[in-house]
Specification:
Blueprint: H1 5-14, H2 21-41, H3 51-64, H4 73-98, H5 109-112, H6 126-139, H7 141-152, H8 157-164, H9 168-185
Length: 187
C-alpha cells in the first residue's frame, strides 16, 4: 500500500514530531475548507461561524488530542469532520443557553440523504441532529459511524465500507437503516 504525504505526516505527528503539524495543515487545508462549507451549508442564516473559524476551532481540538487515531488520509478527514460537528454542536448549545428553541427547522429526510446538502431554507438543527446521532449510537454504533463518515466527512459508500472494514452492501444497509432512524427521530 502506497503511503502518501498526508499519511506520512500523520505518522510523524503520532510519533511526536511537532514539525509535521505545519506541513500537514498546508496539505489538508483546502479539503478541510470544503468539509467546513458542507457542514455550515445547512446551518441557520446569519450563523456566526465561518468555514475558516470552524476549521481553526476543529484543528485546535485535533492538535490538543494526545492520541492520534487518524492513521491515513481518509480516517483523518473523518476525524476532522467529527470535530467540526462537535464545534457546531457546542456553538449551538452556547447560542441556545440564553434562548430555547433556536429557530432552526427540523432536519428533513432530503437533508439526511448524505451526499446532498439540505435544500435552500432547509436548516439543520445541530442539537437535534446530535441528539438523534447519540440515540443511534446507543442503538448501533456502527450505523452512527456510517452517518458521520457519509454526511459529515462526505465519503463515498465504498470509502465508508473500507474504513469500517465491512462490505459495501453492509455499509449501504447500515446507511438505509440509519436514515430511517434519523428520519423518525427528527420529525
Amino acid at each position: 500500500m502506497h503511503s502518501g504525504p498526508i499519511t506520512q505526516l500523520l505518522k510523524a505527528r503520532a510519533a511526536g514530531d511537532a514539525s509535521a503539524e505545519g506541513p500537514l495543515l498546508e496539505l489538508v487545508y483546502a479539503e478541510l475548507h470544503k468539509l467546513a462549507e458542507r457542514q455550515l451549508h445547512g446551518e441557520r442564516a446569519g450563523h456566526t461561524l465561518t468555514p475558516t473559524a470552524l476549521i481553526h476551532e476543529a484543528w485546535l481540538r485535533l492538535a490538543a488530542e494526545r492520541v492520534d487515531v487518524a492513521e491515513d488520509r481518509r480516517s483523518f478527514y473523518a476525524l476532522a469532520a467529527r470535530r467540526m460537528r462537535q464545534v457546531l454542536v457546542d456553538h449551538a448549545r452556547r447560542r441556545n443557553a440564553d434562548k430555547r428553541g433556536g429557530g432552526a427547522a427540523a432536519l428533513t429526510l432530503e437533508a439526511v440523504d448524505l451526499g446532498q446538502a439540505p435544500a435552500a431554507g432547509g436548516e439543520i438543527d445541530a442539537l437535534a441532529l446530535d441528539q438523534a446521532l447519540e440515540q443511534l449510537e446507543a442503538f448501533d454504533a456502527r450505523k452512527a459511524r456510517v452517518v458521520e463518515l457519509r454526511y459529515f466527512a462526505g465519503l463515498e459508500m465504498t470509502e465508508v465500507a473500507e474504513l469500517l472494514d465491512i462490505s459495501r452492501a453492509t455499509a449501504q444497509r447500515d446507511w438505509e437503516v440509519a436514515r430511517a432512524f434519523l428520519h423518525l427521530r427528527l420529525r
